Amino acid sequence: MSEKIISEKRSQSLHDAANAALFLAIFVGIWQLVFMLGIWPKISLPSPAMVAESFVKLMLNLSLPEGVGVTLGRLVASFAISVGLGTLIGLAMIRFKGFGKTLNSFSAGLLSFPSIAWVPFSILLIGFNEFGIMFVVIMSSIFSVMISTYSSIRNIPPIYIDAAKNMGARGFSLFRYVTLPAATPSLIIGLRQGWSFAWHAIIGAEILMSIVGLGHILSVGRDFLDMGEVITSMITIFTIGLIVDRFLLYKLEAKIRKKWGLDHHR
Amino acid sequence: MTKLQAKNIVKHFDHNGNSVVALDGVNLDVQEGDFLCIVGPSGCGKSTFLNIVAGLEIPDSGEILLNGKSISTPGPDRTMVFQEGALFPWLKVIDNVEFGLKMAGIPKEERRQISQRYLDMMQLTKFADSYTYQLSTGMKQRVAIARALAMDPEILLMDEPFAALDSQTRDLLLVELQLIWERTKKTIIFVTHNISESVILGNRVVVFKNRPSKIKKEFTIDYRRPRLMEDENLQKYYHQIVEELKNEVIAQIKDESQ
Questions:
Q1: I need a surface site. Which of A84, A110, A209, A230 has the fewest CB within 10 A?
Q2: What ipTM is given for this predicted complex?
Q3: What is the DSSP letter of A127?
């Protein structure tokens, strides 16, 4: 019976992949059609083939792989700092109630603050360097981690805590074995959101502040009127965003949801 | 021997800025091996009283003595079975049962043995590795009882544990619980709004009075076990308690409509 389910699952995901491929084919077809209509000059709207050419060129001269590497390196480092620091502040908000309440009342402003608005501040404070870029990314994602830590823990059903205390859990073991796991499904959603904010921020910051990276490729493309390069970089950004969310963070969330039975509606 | 003593327990709640008396001087002695049921209209403070015994709430005044010693914090010597089970969804059934033992620092090997024993007792052996969402409501409450018993508490506290169950499952668990009580000789305090439940389970039934809440009357039910829901000889106890509670329910409805 389980084999049947697995094979059904497999055919389902094959089906999904076929749909995605069909969608992409139609998209590229329409693009080609619009190109052939000649509404825009080739320099403003190249054909899919011309973009593929740009892609090959950027791969061969290594500027694309290098750009991806640099961007992801910065992103991972900044996001790690955001998660570490954001979690600590979130926990402090739980520990010191007044502080938490006050900071939480600013959360709407902090969460909706556009990442690009940090750029001039960061340039003047830190400068046109790695740390300046990282600063923008950190500031853009830390609040999401912080607020999610705070609200995830606050929204734990009190009955879990009561039950745990009733069975003798105290202090650190209460935190480690009950608070943390109980908050996990919600924490992961916060991480996904933080990651997406960080991803927005790094491209913006690189366009304005960097001399390498994916965002920089975009800005070079613009400066040299090379739309092929611009679109190549955009497609790469899209693809990385999709892969990381879909195959890493979403998978993690789905796994936890399954274990908890959160998708198990009766 | 007196296992637990509640001395003049008083508790107020803040309700929209008004102070509401939840418990107004509750005095109660629970003897070792008692199966004591507390019945009363909803909102009469019986669950609050149980939470105070568990140490999850602190009384404004009064004292709880366990084996003669004053207590005010939660502890595994008074494990609770909550209304909704309160099992941890991130743990397997067996790890739920072991949770308290783990907190007590008991080695893994020994934990497994103990939890296995209680899972067997509750007929849950097959579900040791399941997660809680895979269980029915009745099975969840069985796990919750196994989890509470695994700690080998001085007193087992039960807060309307069968309220959410369908009647067949409940009838079955009512019999099982009596057998467990006879087998383990545990002292049990069982809170319910269901009078039949209290008559079947309790050797003592304490009726709580509506606000201000205190104990109105106590009944002793000396009758063979296991008692069954359909046993007609239990009717007379049932009617005595209903009579006692009727006025309380009327008083409460008046209270709420004001």
A1: A84
A2: 0.89
A3: -
